[in-house]
Amino acid sequence: MSYSNITPEGTRDLIFEECDRVKALEDLLCDNFELLGFLPIKTPTVEFYDLFDTENRYITQESMLKTHDLNGRILVLRPDSTAPIARAVSTKLKNADKLKIYYNQSIFRQHPSYRAMNTEEHQCGVEIIGGTMEKADLCALMTAFESLKSIGRSFKIEIGHSELLRLLLEDINLSEAEFQRIKNSIASLNTTALDFGSTIDPKALKIARTLPTLNGGAEAMSKARSLAKGKEKALQVLDYLEKLYKSFEDSGYGEYIMYDMGIVQKIDYYTGIVFKGYIEGIGNAVLSGGRYDTLYNSYGKSRIACGFTVNISAVSEKNDIIKRTETKKVKVSLDADSVSNIAEQIEKAKREGFILDIEI
Question: I want to staple 296 with a disulfide (CB 3.0 to 4.6 A). Which of 70, 128, 215, 303 is the partner?
Answer without folding.
Answer: 303
